Structure formats: C-alpha cells, structure tokens
Amino acid sequence: MMKPILRILAALITALVLAACGSSAASEPQPSITPATYQLKELYDDAGTSLNEKLARLEAEGSTVTLVLSEDGTGTCHLFDEEEAVTWNETSLTFLGETYTMEQAGETLTVHSGGGAEGRMVFVMAQ
Question: What is the pLDDT of residues 107-118, one digit of tens each?
C-alpha cells in the first residue's frame, strides 16, 4: 500500500518541479534593440501633441530623419541635412549630450523624450 502512494507522491513532485521550471521563461529579459536603420514616422511633443503634419511636410520637401544603430553601440542620426553621432544600449539612446529611453516592438523603435512619456519619436525599421 505504501509503494503506490510513494509513486503518486513522486509523480506529483516531478510535475510541480517541471511546472516551476517552465515558469522561469516569463522572467527572461526583454528582447534587445535590433541594430538597423530606422526612419522617423511619428513625432509627438512632451504634451503628446502630434507633430506628424509638420513631419509630413518636411518629408514632402525631401527632408527625412534616419537613425542608424550599429552593433557596437554607436550610430548616427541623420537630421534632415545634418549628421550627429549617437551611442545606445538596450534601453537608452544618447544624442547631443541628452539620454533618452527607448524600446522596440517588432520593427518599431520608440524613443521617449526626457520631458515625460508623452513626448516621443517613433521610428520604423527601413527595408
């Protein structure tokens, strides 16, 4: 009578151990930022006001904003006719002496301004 109970208990303990191991995947770190070239597609000021109409007018005139992130943590930001150096890691971007938080979801890279969560630049990975 004791052996069947021990087998059931052993099976339950094994199941609990396997379930505990499986749940550790949820605590893994978020995917890192992908080194690539990104094109600015949306722009919002610190109050969350869209500046996309102004951005569209500039693009219609041939002016674009491109962010190039290299694998070594360096890169460049091409602002219309100027080029500025940037440094970056998995959570932040430093540009013109200011550090901004950033996050990636798929091919979309969002850089948040220091003035609050509302101000942001939304880039899309160039094809």
Answer: 999 999 866 668
10 within domain boundaries: no
What residues does 124 pair with on adjacent strands?
39, 108
Which tokens is 30 given?
Answer: 């978020």
> Which residues on adjacent β-strands are paired with residue 80?
none
Tokens of 97: 């002496």
Query: Distance between CA 69 and CA 125 in Å, rounded?
Result: 11
pTM: 0.72
State how many domains the chain has. Answer: 1
State the DSSP H helix or E strand holding residue 105, giving kind and residue range, or none if neither. Answer: strand 98-105
> Looking at the domain assignment, is residue 7 inside a domain?
no
